[in-house]
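The passage that follows is intended for readers who have already worked through the single-chain material. We present the inputs for a multi-component assembly, then the predicted structure in tokenized form, and finally a short commentary. You are encouraged to pause after the input and sketch how you expect the pieces to fit together before reading on.
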Amino acid sequence: MIQAILVFNNHGKPRLVRFYQRFPEEIQQQIVRETFHLVLKRDDNICNFLEGGSLIGGSDYKLIYRHYATLYFVFCVDSSESELGILDLIQVFVETLDKCFENVCELDLIFHMDKGPAICRMLFRGSTKSVFQADCSCSHDFRFQVHYILQEVVMGGMVLETNMNEIVAQIEAQNRLEKSEGGLSAAPARAVSAVKNINLPEMPRNINIGDLNIKVPNLSQFV
Amino acid sequence: MVASSLKLQDLIQEIREAKTQAQEREVIQKECAHIRASFRDGDPLHSHRQLAKLLYVHMLGYPAHFGQMECLKLIASPRFTDKRVGYLGAMLLLDERQDAHLLITNSIKNDLSQGIEAVQGLALCTLSAMGSAEMCRDLAPEVEKLLLQPSPYVRKKAVLTAVHMIRKVPELSDIFLPPCAQLLHERHHGILLGTVTLITELCERSPAALQHFRKALPSLQVVPQLVHTLRTLVMTGCSTEHSVSGVSDPFLQVQILRLLRILGRNHEESSETMNDLLAQVATNTDTSRNAGNAVLFETVLTIMDIRSAAGLRVLAVNILGRFLLNSDRNIRYVALTSLLKLVQSDHSAVQRHRPTVVECLWEPDASLSRRALELSLALVNSSNVRAMTQELQGFLESCPPDLRPDCASGILLAAERFAPTKRWHIDTILRVLTTAGTYVRDDAVANLIQLIGGAQELHAYSVRRLYSALAEDISQQPLVQVAAWCIGEYGDLLLEGTCEETEPLQVEKEEVLALLERVLQSQMSLPATRGYALTALMKLSTRLHGDNNRICQVMSIYGSCQDVELQQRAVEYNALFRKYDHLRAAVLEKMPLVERGGPQVDEEAKESKEVAQLSEAAPVPTETQASKLLDLLDLLDGPSENAQHPPPLDPTPGDTLIHLLDLPCAPLPPAPIPNLKVFEREGLQLNLSFVRPPGTPTLLLITVTATNTSGGDVTHFICQAAVPKSFQLQLQAPSGDTVPAQGGLPMTQLLRILNPNKAPLRLKLRLTYDHFGQSVQEIFEVNNLPVETWQ
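Having made your guess, compare it with the prediction:
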């Protein structure tokens, strides 16, 4: 079972924090900090497995991490998970994020897989900002997109789906659903709230300007 | 209208621009105030945005509990946008301990039956993340219905939610067990993955479920179905969508292999069905990429765990050996971990790879060397103990500090178990103390003293070695303590100058005294060490010839020492010189061998009584004298009592004798721990008897005795044990693997458990045997372990 998934940058700032077992808030933050310190000490050419820190569970748990450019992806798992399998899972997750954000913002993502003989680079657009540095340039949904995507890969601490195409299709369907709600149904709601601001009792019942005689309809039902 | 608060984007921007923690806090607090106001006033359109901002600051570590109710409102809203954020908030902010969590049960129920995939997915996801036992019970029928829905997206989520529900409420297994067989025939990988996980969970929780899935009924056929699915995956190659670096759906392959392991363990029939497939996977998997290696590892572990053919097992261990030599460190790490799992059951097979394992000790990677250390320690046996100890000693000298305690205690333990000769044992401990003295456990000093005391023929040798070691370095406290004690006891042997086993060493009396004085004065010496040195000096006054002026001088100097313990001793020894000189020789005699808490204790008490009676003849004993007598008995009790203080005294002389009898003696022999009957089935009984050797407070010896009063023999009896990670467990070879019927000769097996942290003992036993033509496997945790076993 996966106990926690943490993503933080090279300075230890959390970018995604998801626990699959309940910890109080302060402990959660401590775990993030402790994990960051443990992972920071690791050189780049040693193995991706760390015995876990003292807070997150004890001797049965280990940390499996991958370092991509400016981000660390850390999965804390117990002995029932295959270590090499989790390494692949992290890769699948990151590649899925990659695929999804192609459509959301202008991003450039460079992967270096140091382990195998092949070095894989995935370039999307011409811009040079890495997706994870461009926190502020993304739409407000970015941060939660990562959560939603993660929810399609790992659920309740267990692996749910690893087919990237399916995950991407699902996310796109959900985003479309959200967009459709925001577009159509928002309009009447916006109108209502605008009307609420009109100070109706003070509106004249009749506007008489020269030859014009306009009867103002009773708008009380909108109040 | 409320002043507009920041959009999430802008909030993030402001937070990033904050130069200090305080600034950041200010921005966030301001924003949280807006959010709180917005929740209060109710803004149905934008509340999801407000909650989103709140969740963001929550991730940064700021309190967000006031958003809990808002989550509930959003979940209840008909809009998907709201539900999405609301459910996410529920997963992040709510948990079983808040009362609010039950309130979403109704919303989840409605959403589950709604019919929009995305919404059902959200509800299931939330349920599997934070569903409490009551929620799971309430919603189980809904989830069960969803298992049969047409949409594979919903079904795969429902299956995984079922796993969570079973974990929370084990009785729900009854509902979720029947659909499994059908679900195994699905083509959709997500559903298959979930189903295999579900079956694995069911089998791990209940032996009845395990039996159920092993049955080879025409309607069931779980093992053949799994074999078929796995074979399809292996043969298909990379034409499927799920492939990762050319291996089709390695995640599903790995899960299936794990399930096969559980089903095949100790079950001949199932094992046979999977043998061919395992051989196929082991030989055909492409190992050039990580995904293939992941599958291969699981295959190896499965082969080793089930009743597989011998040839297959050899193949598996060889694969692991090959992996140990792989250049990829991750592979080496996993190979070491796997070998560690196998070392108990297939010891000789793993031994073959010992040289490679030992090489891994020298890895710069801390994770790898730690694994290699654990495995190396597990591989030490009586035939390789000398070579292995040599390697481990070398490692100890250069290993990183966090591994030193484990390494040192591992070496000492191995030496205790397998020492070929006493001299080798003493040498080994000496070397460990010299290299890593500060990292050894506290009882190492007592153990070594015990060991040396018991080896009479080695007294001369020991004292010389210790003297040389001490002369070189007086900083390693355990070493100094042992050396001081030895020099005190056997100082006469040191000066004699003849010993075949070491180089001739000419030591003058003055040198010895000077060394001990150095220890006394050194800043590095702990108070306990000083106590040892002072006592040693005192003992030397009888062992060495010539006048004792120098020693007397030291005693009178330390009579005004700041440390109360030292001062008291010095004063008492002084008194021994001045007023009780006739007693000195008797009192400072060579110590009798201290048995690990045995009848010696009583003899020492008797000796003290005699000394007390002698002193009655002397002038009226004052308080100092009475306490001095008590301290003499401290001397007799030896080093284990150094830290103890004599009890406060009543000054009246007549009570002296009584006080002597109230002494803090060496630890009394422990009350025997009652035996425990742990298992009984059809005439086969298992009893545990416990022994705590008093000299080693962290050691527990358990003898497992199996008796058979039934009419049939019990054969192929194997007993395995597991303890929590902080313990060290060694199972010695059993007396046999057959327990004859009708109360025949019982089978015994010794377990040694080391408990350095004095943690509560937990013991799980696993028995496998054949009885009445059936093969039986029992796994159980031993309850009612008496507290004396670990306190």
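Commentary: The mean pLDDT of chain B is 80. The longest helix of chain B spans residues 21-41. How closely did your sketch match?
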